[in-house]
TrEMBL record:
It comes from Cellulomonas iranensis. The active site is at E72 (proton donor). It is an enzyme of class 3 (hydrolase). Homodimer. Belongs to the cytidine and deoxycytidylate deaminase family. ADAT2 subfamily. The gene is tadA. It catalyses: adenosine(34) in tRNA + H2O + H(+) = inosine(34) in tRNA + NH4(+). Zn(2+) binds at H70, C100, C103. Transmembrane segments: none annotated. This is tRNA-specific adenosine deaminase. Binds 1 zinc ion per subunit. Keywords: Hydrolase, Metal-binding, tRNA processing, Zinc. Pfam families: dCMP_cyt_deam_1. The keyword Hydrolase applies.
């Protein structure tokens, strides 16, 4: 199937905080909610500078027929609206699957300083798998990347969906 992620569970980064793990639980809940709309179960949450949730999103590509309707983009838009600024300084994006090219680009555009994700997507991932946009030396912004958080849960949701 076109767009099926090649999901890989890697080791969890030792740099994840308790807040990251709690936010990942919320992102997983968003991913589960996507199942009701026939969308690929990927969920995302944005934590504001004070640690509060300022954005949530899940894949809505099918639900609203939007090619850019990825969980990360939805969550980043909501966070920017909530904070009243496009620069998401001090924020953390937490997402269940390694971001694609578009979403990794959105992380850079939003100047998100910290990215936390779950499973790797070896087919379309742009944060270390197929591409490494977030660590590209040519990029104007390079976020800290914390990978492998609750990866088994994220992967299981995706595998169940595509089975
Ligand atoms: Zn994406």
């Amino acid at each position: 199937m076109d767009g099926t992620p090649d999901v890989v569970v890697g080791p969890a980064s030792p740099y994840a905080t308790t807040a990251d793990r709690a936010a990942m639980d919320l992102a997983l809940a968003e991913a589960r909610a996507a199942l009701a709309t026939a969308d690929v179960p990927v969920g995302a949450v944005v934590l504001g500078p004070d640690g509060a949730v300022v954005g949530r999103g899940r894949n809505v590509r099918e639900a609203v027929a939007d090619p850019t309707g990825h969980a990360e983009v939805v969550a980043l838009r909501q966070a920017a609206a909530a904070l009243g600024r496009w620069r998401l300084d001090g924020c953390t994006l937490v997402v269940t699957l390694e971001p694609c090219l578009m979403c990794a680009g959105a992380v850079l555009q939003a100047r998100v300083p910290r990215l936390v994700f779950g499973a790797w997507d070896e087919k379309a991932g742009a944060c270390g798998s197929q591409w490494d946009v977030v660590r590209d030396r040519r990029a104007l912004h390079r976020p800290e990347v914390v990978a492998g958080i609750a990866a088994a849960e994220a992967a299981e949701l995706l595998r169940t969906f595509f089975r």
